[in-house]
Design goal:
This protein is α+β, with helices and mostly antiparallel strands. 27% of the residues lie in helices and 26% in strands. A 7-stranded antiparallel beta sheet has the order 1-10-9-4-3-2-5, with no helix packed on it. A 7-stranded antiparallel beta sheet has the order 11-17-16-15-14-13-12.
Amino acid sequence: MSGSGKMKREKGPDVDDSTQAASTAKSGDHKVNPLSPWTYRNVELFELEYEAFFLRRWQFVGHVNEVAQTGDYMTVDLGRDSVIVVRGKSGQLKAFLNVCRHRGSRLLDGRGTCNRVIRCPYHGWTYTLDGELFRVPKKENFADFDQSGHGLHEIELEVFHGLVFVRIKGDGPTITEDFAHTGDYFTAYGVADYVPCLQVSTQVWNANWKVAWDNYLENYHIPVGHPGLNRLLRETDEAEELPSGVSYGVFRLRDKPSSIDVEQKYQQQFHCANARIPERIRHKWVQFGVTGNLGIDLYPEMLDMFQLVPLGPEKTLIRTCYYGHKHPTHEETHLRELNFRINDPVNEEDRVLCERVHTGLGTTGYSPGPLSSEESSICLFHDKVRELVPVSALRDQPLHGQVAAENTRLLNLPR
């Protein structure tokens, strides 16, 4: 589904107004020029963004219930990097870079269960579930080899209402701190107990990751770009943008029956999933955005995770995961199927829109126009890009080979 749109300051579930006001950035009053077109197509800038936005910020991997037993593991590719999350013998989850310390082979793929150890498929180096190097074939052929210093590279891991996040480099707030009081929504839906309910879907878009994220952040394009969503939903005034970059918006199903059969059936049966959630969020879709690559859609019948994975400055992998209650009713299962039939075409519509924008950004002499109040979240996102990668604030593209050096110079300027 398209994004959380213009963010207003409204109270989340069971939140004190004074706390809310202290933690909210009101984006409706914010004006800034959009990023220059060169920033969407430059290879050198892409490398700086990859470090700032994908290595140093929290990335979604999966749900704890996908790794419930000792030895269960799941992997996620985040561009050129890959991560393993495994359930150790003590029951604790650990996250490691998915690479053998010997010659760099990827260790595991997808999801599954290890038989007590993680074994490299190349030369057989073997690691415990806690990441220690356990066995090296023909170890006598390695002169002065200290086995204890060659365990897997462990990275930061956090579980947020059952959702597993990792951070490869750097430090900063926890994912729980990033969401602040809005985590109450996840409690209300019971997300911690969810399990996978539909097959993971992937799609490659021929567009820069920022084009895709700009699109996710605004609802201005919905009436033209997504007529189905426009028939089905209307925005409410429940929306917020946190300083951390987490935002949310709430949509309500329209009372007027849609003229399209699948949409009308969804409207008619939507009440069947309402019994599990509090009254204040019934008949609604709640959507979160986590700058700048994760969308979270909370429906009464399920949850989906819309994740952008950068493959290069002009290609982005779209990964969507689906979770729901372990024991859905027949009606909830049917609603999930209807939901997928409604939202899957929306993703295809967004792919076409984003690819058209990415192509257009390469037009000689193009200069971006103004942003409407419905696109104000894009302003805050672009500010975050400029903050983390200051060279992106330049109107004109630096000379080839000078982007990183210019970025370093700007980072070192007095603030």
